[in-house]
Amino acid sequence: LSRLVLTREAGSLRVSGQGTIGLDGHIGALDLDQLTLFGAVDGARGREGWRAQLGEGNCLGLASEAIGLQSIVLDTVRTRLCPPDGRLIRQGPEGPEGMLMVDPLNLDLISGRNRGRLNLPSPTVRWTGGNGINAALTSEAVQLDLSIGSRDVTVSANLAELGISLGRAGGTQITSGLQSVDFGGSLIPAQVSADSAQIRFAGGEARGSLSQVRIADTRSDPLYQPVLADLEAELAASRLHLSGPVRLERSGRHIADAELNLAFPELNGGLNLTSHDLTFRPGGLQLSDLSERLRGYFTNTRGRLDAQAEIAITGGGVTSRGNVTVGGFGFQTVALGRVTDVNGAVVFEDLFKLTSPPAQTVTIGAINPGLPLTDGEVKFQLTGGGSARLESALWPFAGGVLAVQPTSWEIGAPSRRLTVRADRIRLAELTEVLQMPGFSAEGTVSGRFPIEFSAGDAYIRDARLAADAAGGTLRYTGDVGARAGQTNENVALAFRALRDFRFTVLEIGADGNLADDIVLSARLQGHNPDVLNGQGFNFNVSVDSKLGQLLSSTRQLTGTDWLAEIRAQQAEAESDE
């Protein structure tokens, strides 16, 4: 002290002093390094208690080499404390109290190897001393910028408050609160905000909460719908733990549970998200409720989905992985019709990029892109940004196999093209699948047919199937032949041959819209041992029809238009006669 004057008068004590007060060491959860308060004060104690005002100037000075709170250090604090009316201590309803205006604070922050800056543009301190000492520092805004390795985190809020309570029994509590909080920076891969954040330090531990946390995708075409969360926080032994339910912003439905763990000062840890009761049903939860990108592509969803996501933070680096499991899943698609009983699991090696290892496998109970397919198996790799590499897709069909050749697939593309390979399709079963009255057949066919999906339709582009080397037998015993033969002798002869036709060449073609106009063609060479002494026939058939209506109708073939271009030719020796 450079000056100290004590004066006792009747019923009162006056003090006038000038100098410095120093604090160094631990006060509750705070670590103070050479904190000093300096200035001149005039005070008096009467029957109501102490009152004081500044003796010289308008402010007190405050300086500290460092102020620590667990693993966080504010480095080199320098500021002024200015009572708005010069009154440092006055008597309030509950004892002594006061208010101090503080110069704008720009403080360097250190947490291990991480560096940052804390900005409080308009701080104010209010304090009371009726029952211990209670002080609250408030600011109309706060900005925190923190560098973590090669990345950064920003926190901004409209209102900040830091409270310190020193009880008479020696207990110390520190409370902190933020309102209208926004989180940003390259370390946070989303738009994150919160209505409020609260935390209370006591006894070496801290508990708090984040209310109405909103998380939204940063992309212009969001991958996921915005979600909300209310999180409980614990901080002990330099480890932060946050946990709570996550719900959809639009409906409030609880869809996941979140758990965040971070170790200070390194800020190493991670976020785990586990799905909660994702059961889909018409009129209830749908895939578009989770991602707007899926609206219109997957509708009328049924089944259960389980998912888990892990986001790891290490030294400022962020990695992510996850998995999705579906059981008894089904949905309606624009291009492929109804898909049912989908089962399997998909592993994501990077959730942000939407990539996976190769050979992700799901099974599909049934699908009908124009032909009824069951018991399929699909293997693929997610390559990022809503794109995938289809490695294989196999369906047993009519005693053989339909296999989709490897191709790239992009959700949302205006058109997609793939090629299906048919291997040893049994004609006997094919006629049953297509429900062709009066037809029976033996033998197998193989071939390929490109399919293009565009504007909700599926187009077959110049498909070709051919009989395998062994040939086979085709029989038609329907009543169309009898009626057609009444008008043309050659047609009658052709239908007689088709009653037991032993073919050596069978080629089937298709081109057009599976649900609308399509041209079906067939080329058939062979003989009937009971017609013309087994002489050879060569058939060329072309059918131009609406296949979707044909397959979904009663399947009755009537009239002779479908044989308009049929030609029955005897063997060359017979025709030369």
Quick summary:
Helix content is 6%, strand content 65%. It has six helices and 38 strands. It is rod-shaped and about 145 Å long.
Can you offer a commentary on this structure?
The chain is mainly β and 577 residues long. It has six helices and 38 strands. The chain has a 38-stranded antiparallel β-sheet that branches. Residues 551-577 have low confidence and may be disordered.
Rg for CA atoms: 41 Å
Task: Please give the number of β-strands.
Answer: 38
Task: State the secondary-structure class.
Answer: mainly beta
Helix content: under 10%
In terms of DSSP E residues, the strand content is: over 45%
**Number of helical elements:** 6
Q: Alpha-carbon distance between the termini?
A: 138 Å
The global form is: rod-shaped
Low-confidence runs: 551-577
Q: Largest beta sheet, briefly? A: 38 strands, antiparallel
